[in-house]
UniProtKB/TrEMBL annotation:
Keywords: FAD, Flavoprotein, Oxidoreductase. Residues 5-449 form the FAD-dependent oxidoreductase 2 FAD-binding domain. It comes from the Eukaryota. Its EC number is 1.3.1.6. One of its GO terms (molecular function) is fumarate reductase (NADH) activity. It catalyses: succinate + NAD(+) = fumarate + NADH + H(+). InterPro entries: FAD-dep_OxRdtase_2_FAD-bd, FAD-oxidoreductase_2, FAD/NAD-bd_sf, Flavocytochrome_c, Succ_DH/fumarate_Rdtase_cat_sf. Belongs to the FAD-dependent oxidoreductase 2 family. FRD/SDH subfamily. Irreversibly catalyzes the reduction of fumarate to succinate. This is Fumarate reductase.
């Protein structure tokens, strides 16, 4: 059998690449990950995956198109990034949803409208599993089974760190070296390597280098997210793009028992997308359109809310609990969210507003024909008769380092480019957060999982075309 394709990383980008190679093209793969388990940050994604002009949208009478999705993405990118990559992301988004539904029997039958989107296009499945966990566990299950039954076709090497890539004098990939958990070095002969190693949001060293103003913020990233792939690709001559563009997510959940913790659970954007609001602790009132882009919401918290602890309150009604029960049950189990009456919330969180006035504000939010902050979607998730005894779900949130938009620049075939904008080496590809150019200055919610599927599958198809030659 031919030398395998080496895939570095087992988040969704790596899993999508591997599944496309194995299921569709019968091409052998080796997945290598320095972590002890599969999934990366993808497994924690909690809002869903974007798709424009999908059958689910059509069934719910939602008019969307790749062009509208592209416009939203370009607007969010603020002049940075690569528009051809954004165009591909948008045009291939419905194909990504169809692939997950068709190949893996994932429902992805519910929709939410997240910040910066013109319409509801972020898909998740009805059921108990969060979208990232559901997608990752489903895609990894197939590969694990193949690794057991056909070890020549699929090999999964965990607790192993890639240390170098061999590139020949004629600029072609020749092999990979990695170190296992016992410190032993191994070599794999290969003509194809796909970097799917994630971002660098956990690395204080890289934050100091590219965005020193963010070093002291907490993060949602796992400890494995240290930019190994970016560093390696930069060393071998890749063009790095937008490395200083680092997304701060506005709603990291504050644990009252450990307020200073450097790592936070993420409050899913779907909580706001489905009607949750943000209150300023200084006034007890809303202060921003909660469905604008993440950078704008973050800036509003940092400029308008108390600067001593950089926080706001995330408030949701029973209607959200009925839709996102599993998310909220988990947050409440972790004591990050509480269910209380409006009256108790005012007392316990020392809000400078009466329960009656807060009830009036929530009523206005739920019923006014035009939102005070021009929020595009007003949802009656607080009920029809709001009073001091109405129960709400409330938790403290603070901005957190969440996603690194920059990385090694790729083209629409997922090839890694050199500083002249040409393919760096034959057989060298990247997909997911390790790459750069797809999101520009700000990533839209729901586009991280999508990026992984679109460009992971693209890398696989590009490699398969070379195999056939």
């Amino acid at each position: 059998m031919s030398d395998p394709v080496v895939i570095i990383g087992t988040g969704l980008a790596g899993l999508a690449t591997a599944n496309q190679l194995v299921k569709t093209h019968n091409v052998p793969v080796v997945l290598i990950d320095k972590a002890a388990s599969i999934g990366g940050n993808s497994i924690k994604a909690s809002s869903g995956i974007n798709g424009a002009h999908t059958t689910i949208q059509e069934a719910q009478n939602i008019s969307d198109s790749p062009e509208l999705f592209l416009n939203d993405t370009v607007k969010s990118a603020k002049g940075k990034g690569s528009e051809p990559l954004m165009d591909k992301l948008s045009k291939d988004s419905h194909l990504a949803i169809e692939w997950l539904q068709g190949e893996f029997d994932l429902k992805l039958d519910l929709l939410a409208q997240l910040g910066g989107h013109s319409v509801p296009r972020t898909h998740r499945s009805s059921g108990k599993l969060p979208p990232g966990f559901e997608i990752v566990s489903t895609l990894s299950k197939f590969l694990k089974e193949k690794a057991e039954s056909q070890p020549d076709l699929v090999k999964i090497q965990l607790d192993s760190k890639v240390v170098s890539i061999d590139i020949s004098g004629d600029h072609a990939v020749r092999g990979v070296q990695y170190e296992d958990k016992d410190g032993k070095m191994h070599s794999i002969d290969t003509s194809y390597v796909v970097f799917c190693s994630g971002g660098f949001g956990f690395s204080k060293e890289m934050l100091k280098r590219f965005a020193p103003e963010l070093v002291n913020l907490p993060t949602t990233n796992g400890a494995q997210t240290t930019g190994d792939g970016q560093n390696m690709l930069e060393r071998i001559g890749a063009q790095m793009i937008d490395m200083d563009q680092i997304q701060v997510h506005p709603t990291g959940l504050v644990d009252p028992a450990d307020r200073a913790a450097g790592w936070k659970f993420l409050g899913a954007e779907a909580l706001r997308g489905l009607g949750g609001i943000l209150l300023n602790p200084s006034t007890g009132k809303r202060f921003v359109n909660e469905l604008t882009t993440r950078d704008v919401v973050t800036a509003a918290i940092q400029s308008q809310c108390p600067k001593d602890d950089n926080r706001a309150y995330l408030v949701m009604g029973q209607g959200i609990y009925e839709v996102l029960k599993n998310n909220l049950d988990f947050y409440m189990f972790k004591k990050l969210i509480k269910k209380v009456t409006l009256e108790d919330a005012v007392k316990e969180y020392k809000l400078p507003i009466s329960a009656a006035d807060l009830a009036a504000d929530l009523t206005a939010y739920s019923t006014d024909a035009k939102d005070a902050f021009e929020r595009p979607l007003v949802t009656k998730n607080f009920g029809d008769d709001i009073s001091a005894s109405t129960e709400i779900f409330i938790g403290e949130v603070t901005p957190v380092v969440h996603f690194t938009m920059g990385g090694a620049k790729i083209n629409t075939d997922s090839q890694v480019l050199n500083t002249e904008g040409k393919p760096l080496a034959g057989g060298l590809y990247a997909a997911g957060e390790v790459s750069g150019g797809v999101h520009g200055a700000n990533r839209l919610g729901g586009s991280s999982l999508l990026e992984c599927v679109v460009f992971g599958r693209t890398a696989a198809n590009s490699i398969a075309a070379e195999f056939k030659k």
